Predict the structure of Methyltransferase family protein.
Amino acid sequence: MSDHTTTEQTARTAELLAAHPWVARARPAPDGGLHVVPHPDAVAAAPDHGPLLREHLEQWAEVYEWVYETGEGRHADDLDLSGWRSSDTGAPLPEAHMRDWVDRTVDLVLAQRPSRLLELGCGTGLLAHRLHPRLDGYVGTDVAQVAVDRLTAAGLPRTAFVRAAAHETDAPRVRDAMDHVFGPQVRPDCVLFNSVTQCFPDLAYLTAVLHGALAAVADGSTVIVGDIRHSGLVLDHFTRLERARDPEADDATVTARATAAAASDEELSFAPAAVVTALVGQPRPVRMSVHARTMAEDTELTRYRYDIVLHVGPHTPAPDTPRVRRTPWDAHRGSGTREALRAALDGDGPVVVHGIPNALLADAPGAVTPYALREALDGTDAAVLLDAADPRLLAVVSPAHRAPAATEQAPDPVGPAAHEPFPLFVRRRLPEVLRDHLRRADPGAALPAITVVDGTGDGPS
């Protein structure tokens, strides 16, 4: 075939691809293949989900439908740990550790004093079984029908379960469930989505879910986003995995492997700064506190994850409310952890002890684990926080409800603000769809290499 004929065929193929509704532009590439730019409507998160984004969400729904159906981690009706496995060994995470994980999440939720809770992504009901007796009403949603059916069959008092995705807070079937449990048109005073954001495609979808959750609650309510993978620690996580897999490898090799694994990670991770950005333009003020995970065992769930509590509505402290005193950990760390905390928290009024190195992540003077801080507080009305900018630093606030609002100052994060898996999915999935399109539109024609690029055409999307 002559170069002229090849050029004509490539141009014709580009025209066929450009006509596809999921493609904004298509053009010949220097290597003889074709570059395509996804159409914005195909990847949109709002106001309507694009077909590629829907496919990403459906992929995760199918995964969890299968995981819950197999029930390989099902210990009891109220302790189904299916899918909870260690990244390094693939073995189930220890039952005692997962019970600790559940208890810490329940403590965080109940500390907000909710009465009517909507949980988005309730899974097997690890939280539902423990929260519903302490609430006036609980409604749970999940994308896996098998999970919804099992929880419904359990007959838990003052509960309802419905199949719905995290973004469907205003879906009629969700509203019907809330009407049944809370009362007609009564809003939840807490919306919770815990250990589900890793399945989200990107920050645009996260923003849509957050906006829906915030719109669902009245002033004075909370939205809790739990068990978040921190983007600033993703490389640390994969470095630890690669070192465990190949203890004899040199540092440069481990770093290269970890960097590649982090770049191709198929789960969403983000820093608190990404949530601050998502809150811009909200019609009501929202205050955000950032909390550390304080389980006893050193696993990825303790090291690399955190929680956020969003406090919705105007916040006007009484005129005589004392200001929060800030004191650095370095000024108190000479003695043991318990004694140092007592000295730091001693005095009148609320206090934040800041700049505490996390011993799970930092080899620094005065480093303490989140668990050691929780144990040292020993029932005190206090909370262990995560530094909103640097995930290797902790803080303690007393009393717990005076946690400083991370939204008042939006610090630049240490490390990337987010890792979004959706562009990776689009680069893999869109060429598959387009090759099928070409086979139908031009049978027998040679199929060129198709590469997804960003809107400038200068590189991968």
